[in-house]
Amino acid sequence: MDRVEYRADLTKRPGTYFVIADDEGVYDWKVWRNPDRPQRCVLEVQRASDDPTERYLQREDLSAACHDSQSPVVFLTYEAVSQGHAAHLALREYAERQAFQELEDVFYADELAFTGAGFTDSPS
Question: The whole model's pTM is what?
Fold first, then answer.
């Protein structure tokens, strides 16, 4: 059996991390089972290089890979202490945005449901 070498940095050093995530569930087969609940799937997490030139090249390479991809992936940057922490921040940010969007939908749905109750712009 072949062994895969993982290059995960397990130390807890604060730094910049680059995250590639899929917001539309293209790579996640569970989305097809539960399409009502959108989820973010974190595909890649890399610690940014300490050297500014290497960091720039790393950022350009990852963002170009996202733009050239045929799937809808996003490139994110976080200040975190580990790869797992950066992935957690990406998932938490998406969950907060979805919760706010659902709250906004409920608020505006109630407003639009009662247009005759004084929510119109025209004077009566």
Answer: 0.69
